[in-house]
Every structure is written in structure tokens, then in C-alpha cells.
Specification:
Layout: H1 2-8, H2 23-43, H3 48-70, H4 76-79, H5 83-96, H6 98-102, H7 108-129, H8 134-155, H9 170-185, H10 190-210, H11 222-235, H12 237-309, H13 321-326
Helix pairs in contact: 2-3, 2-5, 2-7, 3-5, 3-8, 7-8, 7-9, 7-10, 8-9, 9-10, 11-12
Length: 327
Amino acid sequence: MEELLKHIFTTMEPTNTDLVMPAWLDIAAILVGAAFGSLSAKEHKLDLLGSVAMGIMCGLGGGLIRDMILQRGGVYMITSPIAIPLCLIATLIVFFFSGLVLKFEKLLPWVDILSVVLFAASGTEKAVLYSLSIFASVMLGTMTAVGGGMLRDMVLGEVPKIFRRGNFYALCAVAGSFAYYVCVHAGMVKETACFICVVVGMGLWWLSKRYDWLSPQAVDLSPIVVKPVKRIVAATPVVRDVAHAVASVGRGMEAAGSDVEKGAEDVGRGVAHGAEDVAHDTEDAGQALADVGHAAADVGRGVAKGITAHDPVSKSPDKDAPDDAAR
């Protein structure tokens, strides 16, 4: 019994690096994720490059999002020498031998949800190593599990599967991440915690398929809350009086606001009319000045004519002029 407990529990802290998860669990999750990415590419009739892109995205996209959010340590898909080659191998196998893979069609959903919960355990494990809170750890675990599929759906122009109503998928990742975090901090060996994570996640998914449980949609609970409040207000005199007083104050403030608004409109209209009258008066004054200018011009022209009429220079030539010309 003691030997069994030693294999289940440990006295080491969860952040001890000697207790990291086995590498084969990460490898298994990456291979399955890449294979399903390549299957999605085949369904959408993508070419070899598209299949490789979908495989890498599904196999390593969740870990990439996790590492970008965490910003501690390296990026796994770059620092690991085998991550990208594993994705390529899984992608090429599915691309060229998809008929063999599709023969296990009934088994594929189970393999898919298995990779999801394994990714959830992997993401939560990295958060635990950096002593993050339970909320941050579960978030990182969930993003690692569903991030690759989310990127795939976005690239293919679809609403991500995790956001659509259906049997539990993202919730399985949340449950698995939570179970892993609790088990590790309860002193369990990480292999055991990972096993429990898989059992919880896959068990929840099986229940959702078995009993057709669907993720909830938006629900308006306002009537459920408002009706009891109205009954309490109607049944309690003090509360009713306070409610009426508050309502009266509200109506008074609304009326005062309306009066202020009307007054402001009247003042605005008065100012506009005043400005218009001033403009008309200015225009009339300008017209009067123009008339004075015209009258002054007429007087000036009359004076000029009078001067021209009495100017001897402007008279006709002298009578002696022809005689001079004759001489």
C-alpha cells in the first residue's frame, strides 16, 4: 500500500522540474493535433501546402498562443527540435494515406478529445511551473487545448468550433485543466494528475454525447430577478414609499431638465433673431451709405460740368484765326 501511495503522491512541490510530465504525452498530443489539422485541410480540398499549414497550426498553434501569453521561457515550437518535424510527419501521412485514417472514423472523435485534454494538461503544467494562480493556469491550459483549432477555423473563414453551440468541447478542456491543477497541488505525481485530467475531460465529453448536453446559449434572466423585486416593493410599505419618492424625484429631475432644455432653445432662438435683425440694420445702413455715395457722385459730375461751361479755354477758337491762316 505504501509503495502504491508513493507512485500516486509525492512530497515535492508542484513547481519542481523533476516532476515534469513525460515527453511522450506532448508528442502524442502534437501528432494527433497535426493529423486532425490535415484532415480538416482535406475536407476543404486544400493542397499540400495548405495541409501542412493546417497541421502545424492545429498541432502547435495552442502552445504558441500559450507561450505568447505567458512570456516566460522560450516558445516551444521553436526551441523544441522535434515539434515541427513531428507535425510534418503526421500531416504527410494523413495527406497521402487519408483512406487508411478514415477507416477508423468512429474512433477519431475519441482521439480528438484525447488530444484536447492532453494539451490542456500540458498548458496547465507550464503555468504550474511558473507558480501562476488557478485562474491563469486553467486559462492557459484551455487556450493550449483549443487554440490550434480556433486558429484553423479562423483561417478557413468559419466561426471557431469552441464558440458554437454543441456538445462540450472547450468545457472539457476547462474541466481537465482544473482537475490537473487541483491534483498537482494536492500532492499527486504529475503522471497521475494527467491521467485524472484525461478521465475527467473525456468523461465529461462522453456524458455530453450520451445525454445530448449542449453548451448554453445567451439567456435573459432579467424577468426572474425583476418580478420578485416588484413583489417585495409592493408588499413592503416603507420600500414602496421610498420607491415612490425616488420615482417622484426622478420625474422632477426629468421635468427640470426638460424646462432647462426648452429655455436654452428659446435663448438660442432669441440670439439668432437678434443677430438677424442686426444684420438687416447693417445692410440698411450700407445701402444708405451707397445712396449718399451716388448722390455725391452726381453732385461732383454737376460741378464738373459747370466748371467746363465757364472755362474760356474750352470755348470755340478765336475769330482772327482764319485771317492769320490766310496771311
